[in-house]
Amino acid sequence: MHKRGAIVERSGIYWCSVCKLPVRLNKGDVFPECANMCGRGGWEPVQVEETAPESK
């Protein structure tokens, strides 16, 4: 589970652990506060994008 204010490491869909509100977040975004004001919840990944191996 990710806390609000943390940096998103992988783009994808996350949902609030309390109310299950889904949110699309991109790598580098900051996990927001839930729009439903679920203060004690966090963000759980539902579907995250696979990272491609870096080419050299």
Task: Outline the structure in words.
- With 56 residues, the chain is an all-beta fold.
- It has no helices and 3 strands.
- A 3-stranded antiparallel β-sheet has the order 2-1-3, with no helix packed on it.
- A hairpin with a 5-residue loop joins strand 1 and strand 2.
- The protein starts with 11 loop residues before the first strand and ends in an 8-residue tail after the last strand.
- The mean pLDDT is 90.
Helicity level: under 10%
Q: Which band does the percent of strand residues land in?
A: 25-35%
Task: Give the uncertain stretches in residue-range form.
Answer: none
Please give the oligomerization state of what you see: single chain
User: How many helices does DSSP assign?
Assistant: 0
Brief summary:
The protein is an all-beta fold and 56 residues long. It is built from no helices and three strands.
Task: Pick out its properties.
56 residues, mainly beta, 3-stranded antiparallel beta sheet
SSE map:
Blueprint lengths: L11 E5 L5 E4 L17 E6 L8
Antiparallel strand pairs: 1-2, 1-3
